[in-house]
Design goal:
74 residues, mainly alpha
Amino acid sequence: MSDKNITKEQKLSIVASRIRGVKVDKFNAELNLIEQNALETPDASIIASANKIVENTDAQIAALEAQYTVIESE
C-alpha cells in the first residue's frame, strides 16, 4: 500500500473512524437482538446474523486498535 501522501494524523483519524464505524455496527446488531427478543415470534435469521456481527466486531476492533498503536509509534 502506498501511503506516502497520507500524514500520520490522517492515518490515525482514518483508523479511529473505522473503529467508531465497527462499534456502531456492533451497537446496531445489539439493538437488533433486543428488538427481535421483544417480538412474540423472533426471526431466527436476524438473530443469527446479529449474533455473528457482535462476535466478529470484537476481533475487528482489536485489530484496528492494534493498527492505531502501530501508527502512533511511527
